Amino acid sequence: MKKITRIIALLLIGCVFFASNAFAVSAGDTESEAVAQASPPAGWRAFWVREYDKGSLQSGDWRNGPTGAGACTISMSQSNSSSYNLSFTAKLSGTIGDKSKVGADLGVTVGASKTYGITSTYSCTVKAGETRTIQYRPLYYHVKVTEIEYWERLPSPGFPYEKYEASRTTGYVDVFSNWGFQNVAGTPNGAVVK
Fold it and tell me: What pLDDT, on a 0 to 100 scale, did the predictor assign at position 164?
């Protein structure tokens, strides 16, 4: 009888150990470990939660716009911008599981380049004897995207409701906001007087 009791106790300990580790996901789990548990077991369902944090406004490199020799006024607007590079790429860094869903949420196509118009005119006065160049650059948000996959089991007779975090990925997507402008003396970086 004692032998049978000991065997039953060992079996129970093994079951408890398995149950406590079958769905546990710790901060140290690697991507390969998460992939190994890609599908929830029978009776469970998977769902995803996406969190977005746009952070502070970032700026890209300056690009050369129109250049003028004074006395004159130079400006940059949508009407005279066709000869300038107004493209911006929604660059992805890190890992994102569902790019189409994230792109739809952010209003971009992740990884693709798009041309963005100039919504307001920027002008500057050039004095006689001077040469000045308008420069512009993209202003954008480096949006942090966190995708969390949960597995849950709905309550049923003999089984309470349970939920576990199965995986977590973090990526960043650059999302265009607007164009920034300045004017500088001379013809920097090969700017051409027009």
Answer: 87
